[in-house]
Amino acid sequence: MEHFFAIVLFAVSTSVTPGPNNLMIMTSAMNYGVKRSLPHFLGICMGFPIMVLGVGLGFEGLFKLFPILHEVIKLLGIIYLLYLAWRIANTPTSKLDVESGKPFSFLQAAVFQWLNPKALMMATGAIATYSSLSTGLFYQVCIIALVFFGSAFPCVGVWLLAGAKLKTWLKNERQQRLFNFLMAGLLVLSIVPVLGEFI
Known about the structure:
This protein is mostly helical.
């Protein structure tokens, strides 16, 4: 509990800054609207704290025993993010206002957390920094996961609403296509630091 406010600051600052989750939810809201993007939004907000629990209560031990597993997941995440960037860049703008295309489902967004390099680093960093072996790890991991759960809704929600607002500003296909290319580019840039670890 002595680190509670530090955990809150860490959770808010890492959850609200640009990253794969936030860029993707903003793009989804712009392309498909808030209502159709809600499953994606809820998948992020609930999937990430569940991943924090998984990392804190077992996967961190697995990663220590088998470091290659962490590298494999990270590499798969990079490949998947590049694929998503390509998908975002090629979203058909002429169909943005009709019930076409498929935003992420709740399950897809929740499972994506395990392939998101930023999310994995946030989870392992939070557990390593704000837990102590001198007291019960289970209790500490649960507190950290709850803090991320509480901060996810407003922090990711800002990006969801920003995407919806952008839809009203970007009126023509050219503007929408430029936005999609920009978001795809930013998504690629967000994985450059992780990519650097493999070079």
